[in-house]
């Protein structure tokens, strides 16, 4: 029987934009986002303070557009706006479940979100609201992984939970290589040296410098967010020595 005692008081959950698309491949699948929202709601009920960072790859990928000739800064700003759309969709799903949320955007757009102010974000968390950080860091050339690492440090989160479509970190792509080996735990230097696609190097270095652990786990299996929060050994943990 799984534990219902949370191992963490304050977490940052990082979701990829692609996760919201489900099997559609593009956009937002209402069933998928409602399922994720209900799992987040279960974690909030345990008394855990939850912050979210959601990517924008289901709508627009800045890096992909810049590789096709678009100005990188312009493409990245468009990607940031895509994360705002995802954040508002997640807010809607959570609020329908009665979970109080606030979207804080690094790019000011007062009609739809509060501006990101660190102390305000912490106050919302203390009041039991789910805080969704939108628009990345507000700067081009940084990924939402880096935004997640930065925000996690700013709010003093105890851990980053990185939800993916794979059940952890492997030495090669398990979708291609049937003999791929899964790691139960790694340290930050291993991730950087081996070039493992956990998070980009900037995000990994930030976590290493501040000794912030990261757990990579499978989002597509129902109940996994709660399991990770309650300390069950699923996925792969990246931490210091």
Structure characterization notes:
This protein has a single domain (10-239), classed as Carbamate kinase (3-Layer(aba) Sandwich), CATH 3.40.1160.10. The two termini are 31 Å apart. The protein is globular, with a radius of gyration of 17 Å. It has helices at residues 17-21, 30-45, 62-67, 72-96, 118-126, 144-154, 188-194, 201-209, 224-229; strands spanning 10-15, 49-54, 101-105, 114-115, 130-134, 159-164, 169-170, 182-183, 185-187, 214-218, 236-239. With 241 residues, it is α/β, with parallel strands linked by helices. Strands 4-3-5-2-1-6-10-11-9 form a nine-stranded mixed β-sheet, sandwiched between helices. It has a two-stranded antiparallel ribbon with strand order 7-8. It has nine helices and eleven strands. Helix content is 39%, strand content 19%.
Computed structural class: alpha/beta
Rg value: 17 Å
Within the largest sheet, what's the order of strands? Answer: 4-3-5-2-1-6-10-11-9
Q: Quickly count the domains.
A: 1
Mean pLDDT: 94
Name of the level-1 CATH class? Alpha Beta
Strand content: 15-25%
User: Helix segment count?
Assistant: 9
Shape: globular
Low-confidence stretches: none
| CATH-level-4 superfamily name | Acetylglutamate kinase-like
The topology string of helices and strands comes to: EHHEHHEEHEHEEEEHHEHE
Q: Any idea what the CATH architecture is?
A: 3-Layer(aba) Sandwich
> Quick one: biggest sheet?
9 strands, mixed
CATH topology (level 3) name: Carbamate kinase
Instruction: Give the helix level as a range of percent.
Output: 25-40%
Number of strands: 11
Give the termini distance in whole angstroms.
Answer: 31 Å
Oligomer: single chain
